[in-house]
Amino acid sequence: xxxxxxxxxxxxxxxxxxxxxxxxxxxxxxxxxxxxxxxxxxxxxxxxxxxxxxxxxxxxxxxxxxxxxxxxxxxxxxxxxxxxxxxxxxxxxxxxxxxxxxx
Amino acid sequence: xxxxxxxxxxxxxxxxxxxxxxxxxxxxxxxxxxxxxxxxxxxxxxxxxxxxxxxxxxxxxxxxxxxxxxxxxxxxxxxxxxxxxxxxxxxxxxxxxxxxxxxxxxxxxxxxxxxxxxxxxxxxxxxxxxxxxxxxxxxxxxxxxxxxxxxxxxxxxxxxxxxxxxxxxxxxxxxxxxxxxxxxxxxxxxxx
Lengths: 103, 192
Fold this sequence. Notes:
The complex is a heterodimer. Chain A is mainly α. Chain A contains three helices and no strands. The longest helix of chain A is centred in the last third of the chain and has 31 residues, at 59-89. Chain B is mostly helical. Helix content of chain B is 80%, strand content 0%. Chain B is extended and about 85 Å long. Classes of the chains: A mainly alpha, B mainly alpha.
């Protein structure tokens, strides 16, 4: 059986989440930002799994199924939005999408 | 078991970093798939075989295929890589990296700076049957709501992604309207 300490398992989830956060912060391409959001969601799911295995409860896995459903819906809508933005502006650079900015 | 955990953790961290920092979109997606697969291995050895399978099928399968399709439809080629090189200067990522590093240090302190709390230890894996039983008894309302959200997501994605017929000038727009009206008029007269 696995004997990795709980804090090391949580550390893996934290590192994955922070890499995703770094991606959202440094990329300017919308597709990469959406990918980084996926990484962060995945890290959150990993925390649920770790908790579920620690206390041997099914609730963690049930929550991860909801996270999966949410990620799927989010990706569908987000990618449709990216396609539409690309058709309107011919760019995927978030810094150039500034219609809502008050001049 | 421990060595499997550490190996897949290292693969996951490395490939996620490559996915986030890569300049080529398709290569980044492939790295992300490797990362998701190694996270699925971790799910499996943490006693969640059902979720490991779902991770492979839904995340590494369906969601990544959507991403690949969109990258293919945008079709930006070599110019995109040049653009990414310009965007990923060290000035752009230095400060965010510093702040994320600070967050990591805080987490290290929280995780390792305190005495370990007690609790039941991990034992047997939780089998798919138990998960399904919990989903369709205690979490039935949540499952229904997830189904509605997926439906709304599909309808919303279709509605947003629909290509509208655009005319680029108002005179042309009027012309197109007039032509359409004329066509329907003649159709009516023919019917009469």
